[in-house]
Design brief:
Aldehyde Dehydrogenase, Chain A, domain 1; 2 domains; 15 helices; 21 strands; binds 2-aminohexanedioic acid
Length: about 500
């Protein structure tokens, strides 16, 4: 147990050294289940620290990009083993800092280890293509080369998995990184960096600057050393960041993973118990603080009443409380601000004529930022509760006549991250896969969750078109060089026309 009296001061990691920020100021990191408990003091970095981190990343780039990919992979593999070895400790720190349950905290830590392992393996995979050339003595091929310095700006809701799935591919493909974790979760970020440093990353290859986005976000995004930015967070911040990167006119590559308003469709022929469990899990685990969380359930009228009754009973049976306790299903929201924002949405749902059939603020759970699993019926599909991302344990349930209506309503939001359908009808399931606007589609499983080796990302306002994780990560974290290598030292054929496939 980390006692308040002994709360440690943590440092930035720049150029291979742990260091105080130039501001000399630190911020407290508190446990959202027990806000009196301080988990540590973290550097409130200033622009000078960003400059130092960028210089370090820039300085380390040449050595790192020229290293054998296999050697880079060996370091990532070692880091994956260190994360795995420390999974109990890191998982508990994550739970104290973010509020998800111990099971989820440890599970996420092991996920980060799996991601590091996957990208370690990717360094031994073929990259680039060999192409035929119209000149028979030209060896024509493509190479994948790093982008340069990558800024990884990460959210608090997956404080180790998301940093891992940005940092691991960035490093695997030869980039160096400046890592700015969410202000609310610097502890887990620091532990991840410790593991990577211990694994043997050369100084400057990975740099950590903690602090607030307000103080250093613009300095990171606008920094002249930055070649690419990978961001997961809110739509507002993501859009602003994108605009700023475009304005820089330096060809900064940007990857954005943002909100979701993910639907499930439950049809009359569904396995109702399965649909119930998966809908509850998707909506309520991690207190709904996932961009992949289920926030709208469209239920066909034949099973609507039964499904709503069962949802209410199941939601009411979830135990809300200290996420360190093994019996707890739902911990607190991450902060007072997040709790207030979710409670505001509950107010909006009521004001818009919805009925809160279960949930709301708990009566007696001390001063932690808890919200009970909350379910609304009677919400208009066009209302704010059915359109906006809430990021809390709040689910709106709406009746539908048939699959076509469910599909149309499911698509009637600006987001398109994940979506799921519960049915036993194969044609309906494949029709849904074809027509739903979502980057991640589930048939008979919950909207949240992501396997470490599978592409991850959304459509419409949810993402900036690229995909994270898996084999697709290389597309963002590298650029292509096309090489025409004439091994016969021959002059070009006189009659060769531009673009024509001239014979030898
Ligand atoms: C998951 O559903 O397990 O920020 C992963 C998020 C997503 C990750 C979700 N980028 O919630």
């Amino acid at each position: 147990m980390i006692a308040t009296a002994t709360a440690k001061t943590y440092q930035n990691y720049i150029g291979g050294e742990w260091a105080d920020s130039s501001s000399g100021a630190t911020g407290e990191n508190r446990n959202p289940a027990r806000p009196g408990e301080i988990l540590g003091h973290f550097q409130s970095s200033a622009i000078a620290d960003v400059d130092r981190a960028m210089d370090a990343a820039h300085g380390a780039l040449d050595g790192w990009r020229k290293m054998s990919p296999i050697a880079r992979g060996n370091i990532l593999y070692k880091a994956s083993q260190i994360v795995e070895r420390r999974a109990d400790e890191i998982g508990e720190a994550l739970t104290r800092e973010e509020g998800k349950t111990l099971k989820e905290g440890k599970g996420e830590t092991l996920r980060a280890s799996a991601i590091l392992r996957f990208f370690a393996g990717e360094t031994a995979q073929p990259v680039g293509d060999r192409l035929p050339s119209s000149n028979p003595t030209t060896f024509l091929y493509t190479e994948r080369v790093p982008l340069g310095v990558v800024a990884a700006i990460t959210p608090w809701n997956f404080p180790i998995a998301i940093p891992a799935w940005k940092i691991a591919p960035a490093l695997a493909y030869g980039n160096t990184v400046v890592f700015k974790p969410a202000e609310l979760t610097p502890l887990t970020a620091t532990l991840l960096v410790e593991c990577l440093a211990e694994a043997g990353l050369p100084p400057g290859v990975l740099n950590l600057v903690t602090g607030s986005g307000r103080a250093i976000g613009d300095a990171i995004v606008g920094h002249e050393a930055v070649n690419a930015i990978t961001f997961t967070g809110s739509n507002e911040v993501g859009k602003a960041l994108y605009r700023r990167a475009l304005d820089s006119e330096r060809g900064v590559k940007v990857q954005l993973e943002m909100g979701g308003k993910n639907p499930v469709i439950v049809l009359n022929d569904a396995d109702l118990d399965l649909a119930l469990t998966q809908t509850i899990n998707g909506a309520m685990m991690s207190s709904g603080q996932k961009c992949t969380a289920t926030s709208r359930a469209f239920v066909q009228r034949g099973v609507y009443d039964e499904f709503v009754d069962k949802l209410i009973a199941r939601a009411g049976s979830l135990r809300v409380g200290d996420p360190l306790a093994a019996t707890t299903d739902l911990g607190p929201l991450v902060s007072a601000g997040q709790r207030d924002s979710v409670m505001d949405y509950i107010g909006i749902g009521r004001a818009e004529g919805g009925e809160m059939v279960t949930g709301g603020a708990p009566e007696e759970l001390g001063d932690g930022y808890f919200v009970k699993p909350t379910i609304f019926t009677g919400i208009a599909p066009t209302g704010r509760l059915a359109q906006e991302e809430i990021f809390g344990p709040v689910l709106a349930v709406l009746p539908i006549d048939d699959p076509a209506e469910g599909l149309a309503l499911a698509n009637s939001v600006k987001y398109g991250l994940s979506a799921s359908i519960f049915t036993r009808d194969i044609a309906t399931a494949f029709g849904f896969i074809r027509d739903i606007d979502a980057g991640i589609i589930h048939v008979n499983s919950e909207t949240a969750g992501a396997e470490p080796h599978a592409p991850f990302g959304g459509m419409k306002a949810s993402s900036s078109f690229s995909r994270e994780q898996g084999k697709t990560a290389v597309d963002f974290f590298t650029q292509v060089k096309t090489v025409y290598f004439d091994w016969a030292y021959k002059a070009p054929l006189a009659d060769k026309e531009e673009g024509a496939g001239a014979p030898a």
